[in-house]
Design a protein that fits this description.
193 residues, 32% helix, binds iron/sulfur cluster
Length: 193
């Protein structure tokens, strides 16, 4: 279980596997022991495939984040997936109308576990300036969100910071978390099986 307060610390940790004491007979040059959780977490963190769900201006900031100057490919994420089954990070960027909400929820439901959600910008997170009858006042009304990126629009640096925080969650999550009663209760709260 990740301590939420740790998300507000500078994310400076290296890509290490935190070796533990080797079992007898398995020590020696070229060998080290680690936990399955640590190995799976590192693999998930370093192979995340995003599904960009961009509906308006925040999506333009994402294009900048992906392009050569900020180069999201440095983090193994240049392969965007527009097929939910082959994506594990749903990035919602832009205004989501109430009419669009069920479509977004269907996309989330079609993603395989483990899946994470990054809410980019004020509109996706809270409806932003559009406090109107037609705009969803935050995507967390229909799907669970892991990390919120503030701003209208957020700069690419902020989007990268949000991605790093999702990476942190993925790296430190127990690979059994998705089977936990707590996680199932979270999905049940949203009416998702
Ligand atoms: S948060 Fe601002 S920049 Fe982003 S989609 Fe909404 S209005 Fe556009």
């Amino acid at each position: 279980m990740v301590n939420p307060s740790s998300l507000f610390q500078p994310l400076t940790e290296a890509n290490t596997l935190s070796p533990v004491e080797p079992p007898p007979g398995l020590e020696g040059q070229g060998f080290f022991a680690t936990t399955l959780d640590a190995a799976v977490g590192l693999a998930r963190k370093g192979s995340m495939w995003p599904l960009p769900y961009a509906t308006s201006c925040c999506g333009i900031e994402f294009m900048s984040t992906a392009a050569s100057h900020y180069d999201i490919g440095r983090f193994g994420m240049e392969r965007f997936s527009y097929s939910p089954r082959q994506a594990d990070l749903l990035m919602v960027m832009g205004t989501i109308s109430k009419k669009l909400g069920p479509i977004l929820k269907t996309v989330y439901e079609q993603m395989a576990e483990p899946r994470w959600v990054l809410s980019v910008g004020a509109c996706a997170s809270s409806g932003g300036i559009f406090d109107t009858y037609s705009v969803l006042q935050g995507i967390d009304r229909i799907i669970p969100v892991d990390v919120y990126v503030p701003g209208c629009p957020p700069r690419p640096e902020q989007i990268l910071d949000g991605i790093f925080r999702v990476h942190y969650l993925a790296k430190h999550e127990s690979y059994r978390r998705r089977d936990s009663a707590e996680y199932k209760a979270l999905l049940a709260h949203y009416g998702i099986e």
